[in-house]
């Protein structure tokens, strides 16, 4: 099939590349000229494991190309995927300006039947707005050309995006049109061979399914963070509790890791957007608000614990950070807990000495050059001469550490472990002042 993808971010680029890899011909369009120029040069603007070689082989195979030209993009595919950003507006609602601008572009330039596929995460009712926008643009040209709009939310996780896209649990398509069902089946056929993954539903249910999935996962995390905070007060180890409850198949082990709060470009904005949608239909979203409030508090955990460890005085201290990305295997720092910590440390007059395997460039892009942000080449340099170490991201390489060595590097041997990587007992036996999240230790995540 010939497919156009609008947006070459985490979702658009992965979707386009995987669909090309499955044998389709894909043209990816972005308004960011710099991004497209880099992609045309074979440079991948984001870090996503496995993506670079897949992009290169599909470009070389003639199945994947990039453009900034809207006319070429609209003219290319019968399927027109919208995979642009839907960032939070000031009131927490999803900002649909980029989605609707693509819809307008399609309406302005289409000359034959198109299926417009909403892959961006969008509130219930957006497919109707996309339809109206396309129709208005066509009317403006005095044209009447047939088109359909369907919802096809994406469930990939950054860091595992290719595997999630190609081996996802389900492929959801919101449509009532038989023709769209047939075309979407054909599009995903290469990834639907082992068992039936396609789930067709009405468009509003598909739109809500995406938010419900993210809100459920975020709820699990906030729930565990609440239990962790209780465990701290009750002298229990939340890691043992996690294993204890995860073993119940009704609960399961996934997404119940307590820590320094969920970040990333999805959970924070999507929980807020769903809560906003609820208030628009006169429903008070008590649970969603609590999930968000618990997370907001949890993201302050790292700073709260550090401040307690240093009797509230962090001025002039140097704090080592291992990890800046919101989770491992990505360079993405959107809403990362490390940002909440760094900003609080700077406010308190401390210097940050940080290392992340992939997110350093992104960190510099966000914060620029400043005296109180020292980015170093590896985790060893990060702890050199520092007063304390904070673990913000559970990169695999951070898990193996010689505690005796670590103790020698830090002037005050304080470790605040936001991801519970280490055995508290072993760390304490080595003479470190080790504070995890919910591990029955003396420092509290929040008041
Ligand atoms: N990042 C994820 O893990 C993930 C997973 C599932 C769903 N989503 C959802 O997918 C959508 C995209 O997320 P993302 O993380 O890929 O965003 P992103 O910010 O990484 O990329 C968005 C891209 O869209 C481009 N763009 C903006 N306006 C455009 C236009 N008019 N035409 C063409 N391109 C345009 C931007 O230049 C940018 O390159 C969001 O709605 C998000 O919630 C994201
Ligand atoms: O047990 C857990 C699992 C995750 N997290 C945190 O939760 C955040 C999000 O992690 P993850 O879900 O792995 O990453 P995302 O790439 O944000 O993916 C989520 O958001 C995407 C965008 O909507 C969806 O497509 C995915 O299905 C959904 O998992 C990160 O800060 C993690 O550290 C925890 O604190 N504890």
From TrEMBL:
Gene3D superfamilies tied to this protein? Cytochrome c1, transmembrane anchor, C-terminal, NAD(P)-binding Rossmann-like Domain
Q: What molecular function terms (GO) are annotated for this protein? A: NAD binding; UDP-glucose 6-dehydrogenase activity
Per the record, the domain of life is Bacteria
Pathways per UniProt? Nucleotide-sugar biosynthesis; UDP-alpha-D-glucuronate biosynthesis; UDP-alpha-D-glucuronate from UDP-alpha-D-glucose: step 1/1
Source organism per UniProt: Pistricoccus aurantiacus
Which Pfam families does the UniProt record give? UDPG_MGDP_dh, UDPG_MGDP_dh_C, UDPG_MGDP_dh_N
Active site residues of this protein:
266 (nucleophile)
Matches recorded under SMART domains? UDPG_MGDP_dh_C (SM00984)
| InterPro entries, per database record | 6-PGluconate_DH-like_C_sf, NAD(P)-bd_dom_sf, UDP-Glc/GDP-Man, UDP-Glc/GDP-Man_DH_C, UDP-Glc/GDP-Man_DH_C_sf, UDP-Glc/GDP-Man_DH_dimer, UDP-Glc/GDP-Man_DH_N, UDPglc_DH_bac
Question: Where do the annotations place substrate binding?
Answer: 155-158, 210, 255-259, 263, 327
| Keyword Mitochondrion set for record | no
E.C. designation(s): 1.1.1.22
User: What keywords are annotated for this sequence in UniProt?
Assistant: NAD, Oxidoreductase
Instruction: Spell out the reaction equation it catalyses.
Output: UDP-alpha-D-glucose + 2 NAD(+) + H2O = UDP-alpha-D-glucuronate + 2 NADH + 3 H(+)
For this chain, the family text in UniProt reads:
Belongs to the UDP-glucose/GDP-mannose dehydrogenase family.
**What processes does the entry annotate via GO biological process terms?**
polysaccharide biosynthetic process; UDP-glucuronate biosynthetic process
Which top EC class is given?
oxidoreductase
Query: In its keyword annotation, does this UniProt entry include Magnesium?
Result: no
Which stretches make up the UDP-glucose/GDP-mannose dehydrogenase C-terminal domain?
320-424
Could you identify this protein by its name? UDP-glucose 6-dehydrogenase
